Amino acid sequence: MVTATIPVKQTQVESKTARSWLRPGWLSSAAAPSMFAAIWFSAGILAAHLRWFLPAITLFALMGSIVVAWIAATKAPRMAWGATALVFALLGIFCAEISPAVNPQEQLALMTGRTKRAIEGEVVRVGAVRESESAAPFSGRLRDEHSEQLDLRMPSLGTARVTVYAPVEAAFPRLTCNDEVRATATLHEPERFLDPGVWDWNAYLHEEGIGALGSVKAQDLTVVGQKRGWNFSCWLYSLQQTASKRLMDFAADSHNAKLPAFLRINSEDASMLTAMLTGDRSWLEHRVRVGFERTGSFHLLVVSGLHLAIFSGLIFWIAKRMRFSRLWATAVTIVLSFGYALFTGFGHPVQRSFWMVCLYLIGRLLWRDRSALNAIGFAALVMLAASPRSLFDSGLQMTLLSVLAIAGIAAPLAEKTFGPLLRGLRDLRQTRVDAALPPRVAQFRVMVRIGAQLLRPWVGRYLAWKVFPWTMRMLLLGAELLAVSTTIELFMMLPMAAYFHRITLFALPVNVLVVPFIGILLPCALLTFAVLMIAPSMAFIPGAATAAILHAVTQVVTAFAALRGGNLRVPMPSPLTAVLWMVLIAASICAIRARRWGMPLAVVALGLAAALLVMPRPFQRHAGELEVTAIDVGQGDSLLIVTPDGKTLLVDAGGLVGEKPDSNFNIGEDVVSPVLWSRGIRQLDAVALTHAHEDHIGGMPAVFANFRPRQLWVGPDPDVPVYENLLHSAAQAGANVHRYVAGDQFTFGGVNIRVLAPAPDYCPGKTPSNNDSLVLQLTYRDTSALLEGDAERPSEERMVAEGGLHSDVLKVGHHGSITSTTPAFLAAVAPQFSAISVGRRNYYGHPRHEVLEELQSAHVVTYLTDMDGMSSFYLDGKHVTAQAWAETAR
């Protein structure tokens, strides 16, 4: 009797569940109340971001809406969801409006400049002492030194992040939390490039509470006392830095160094382990990061929600193995997870993961349904209430999309396909269970039993009944991992394109192959770290296993990163594209729950959403006009030329003098490329190099890799390594190299281009010089622009002698140096507008006041990139108009 009633109950439950998918309630507030609240709370924050609301009126409206919601809940329950949504939206507006603004620390900003100043403050954050190579500003000469980064809180002024440095042979002060120090330092504002689409480091540091950066020689710093009390955050950061330093030092340990290369943790491995275990990314060099970035697996390398989830799962498993009660296992897991989250810096991804782990474990303890949507909704609500501005954080957005992908697509997909089969493998020998299962699952169990019986005579009873079902389980788990990874990658395409201008076609296979290894690597790495803290001489034993797994992971990542075509760089999606993408994503979530044609419709919707981001779109331009745009690249040059026919030319790509090859910042990748992507540019028609100085050529390799220009224009340049590397990049991109000298003329996109310098008989020296500069004059009908590069007096005198220099726009030579823009040359050009590309706080004193006075006397309207940001000039053939990005941003 009991057996007969089981399938009836099961069928009724399944039928009820299937019907519930088709009702509107599957996305109702009751299904995931925390997510419902978070969505409307976010809508309120967004409204406050777009428009200012008076907090008092908002509070009054909020109180009224609460009363309305209570009445609706008691009198008209069907209308309660609307009133509740209004409550959370108004609450989001109110929290956003009363949230304290970022402190601009204006008094501290007034102290910045090139002048050394006496400062005094309390150490509130101190890093580890490091030995590294560095270059003096705007100098290519490298030097070895010890350095330490610390945050100084100065009363009534603000907090400055100061780097203390000294030669390796000199004494270095030992600094600790709460030390009161006095120093003579040079303070400067955080670097900021006033270009559209470029990440604002200045705003980021202000969010972190840092108002200025600085540097001080160790000999100019004195500890004058120590403030009483305990600074927990400073102590925690010091602990993190100490742990990172211990891991880095382990790479040089004698026991570790004796192991074979595959089992030995080297310095690069140690830098990855510090990022993975402690959250400290500062040791990661560019060559280590690039492979993970190109394959979309960087989140596996650094502390993220995945790492905390693995850590929590490991602790919970150990607690259960030690026969802890359910309550104690939950408590121990939450406490240790919180400690690990604090140890890693308690960043936003870890915070969100910690709250989800807590909600899951508490829900498991109380025997309640564990909804992923509810968990992420709760975490998001807590995060947004604490900091409404975090709504615009890319990490929060990507976390929400990841969970939505799993709960919205992957989970229903698994439930319709292999999920029931996976559960059907439990208690395989219990045949009486079959009657209570759906026919498809029961049939699958019978087939697995038949397979085991057929294999038994050949492989034995153990392999047939243990290994064969286990293999089937692993195949189904692999299918589940593949479904989850595929869905997440499809959902991640929009934020990856918007924030990183990258679609990694190999992200799916890399994540499928590597994620299982990370589940093993993290426990091994934690064990290695624990042994390193307790018995350093024995750490090489677990370190060998850690190194082997880590090297297997990096080999997979490196192999996929080396494949061409897997790393697709894309421009910023248009607002319309983003809206259509979200509509298609919502449609796929709805479609997969339909009884008929659900999965095909969902697949089609997801495919169309992906195609939207890959499809080319017209880039932003002024049709029928010649555009000359000076990009703010600091102390360097980079000009974007857009012809009336829509052809694109980039003249120079900026660069940092003395930049190390492994630097994590590159002007071409981090400034020039985002500017082009923000315009919707996918490929450049041509790139021109004026000359081979670092501040003009440094960003070129990244530009060639990202935009694969069809042509490269150069003049007579010396065969130095950096120039040879550029020619190699051009060859890899398939670009045709054209060499020009004075007297050459040609047409490009409806614009007549005349080469003014260098002379046909010019011979470059052994090293690049300013007079190597390729000078171009662009003429469109009755308007023209002259691009001077860094040409100096000798080149200008020859051009004046040749004549025909009159132009409406002048890109001033050599950043406004006194060696260029002579009075005779300026008189011959007689421009209406001029642009000077110059860096803030540059050590050359550019632009010189003599040059600015000459331009002012000639009534030339001058734009400086350090003050006006990116500046554009539009030549329509009769008139010229100008626009500064800093003005439009304000």
List the helices and strands and how they pair.
Layout: H1 2-22, H2 33-50, H3 55-75, H4 80-98, H5 106-109, E1 116-126, E2 130-135, E3 142-154, E4 158-167, E5 179-188, H6 201-207, E6 212-217, E7 221-226, H7 232-250, H8 254-257, H9 267-277, H10 286-294, H11 298-301, H12 305-321, H13 326-343, H14 348-365, H15 372-386, H16 394-416, H17 419-424, H18 439-459, H19 461-500, E8 502-504, H20 507-534, H21 540-561, E9 567-569, H22 575-591, H23 598-614, E10 626-630, E11 639-642, E12 648-651, H24 667-678, E13 686-688, H25 694-697, H26 700-707, E14 711-714, H27 721-733, E15 736-739, E16 745-748, E17 751-757, E18 775-780, E19 783-787, H28 793-802, E20 809-811, H29 823-829, E21 833-836, H30 849-857, E22 861-864, H31 865-868, E23 871-875, E24 880-884, H32 885-889
Parallel strand pairs: 4-6, 12-13, 13-14, 14-15, 19-20, 20-21, 21-22
Antiparallel strand pairs: 1-3, 1-5, 2-3, 3-4, 5-6, 5-7, 8-9, 10-11, 10-23, 11-12, 16-17, 17-18, 18-19, 23-24
Helix pairs in contact: 2-4, 2-15, 3-4, 7-9, 10-21, 12-13, 12-14, 12-20, 13-14, 14-15, 15-16, 16-19, 18-19, 19-20, 19-23, 20-21, 22-23, 24-26, 26-27
State the gist of this model:
The chain is of the alpha/beta class.
Fold and architecture overview:
By secondary structure, this protein is α/β, with parallel strands linked by helices. Helix content is 51%, strand content 15%. The chain has 32 helices and 24 strands. The chain has an 8-stranded mixed β-sheet.
